[in-house]
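[Q] Does anyone have a clean structure-token version of this?
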Amino acid sequence: MKCPTCGEDHGLLEPTFRRPDAIAAVPSSLRATHVFESDDLCALRARDATQQDRYFVRCLLPVPVRDHEDTRWGVWAEVSGPDSKTIYDAWDDPRQAERPAMDAQLANDIPGYPPTVGLPMRLRMSGPTTRPQLTFAADQSHPFALECRAGVTVHRVKEWLARMGAS
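[A] Here you go.
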């Protein structure tokens, strides 16, 4: 599709995070004993009694792009222990999309914005062959949430990718 702004074809990549920020920050010396990680689910075992175990799910955050096909951020969401168990138990269930949405928090800091880790989200399972979907609440006023809900231009997506080192 040709961009109406510049007339060029933009074959865009979708911005993606490999792991939640909390998992990426764990020193390699502790990974074997404190981290469970896969490309879909991660858990961080508490290091001591003052902490709690933490659970993460890889999700897609759809973003409308006004002058191109929509994009999706590949981000991680932090969920509660009980919700993590629900997600794990329903992972291969063909009817998982019928489950109610659950509370989650964004688990990645998005470059170029005020901190985004911890922003409240809603997570909805979407089927056994697709990643869960994230959405921001309509009243969320963080700049990243506002742009994701309102939609962006292809040039904004290119700025996002450049900040992440993938232009």
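[Q] Thanks! Anything notable?
[A] DSSP finds five helices and seven strands in the chain.
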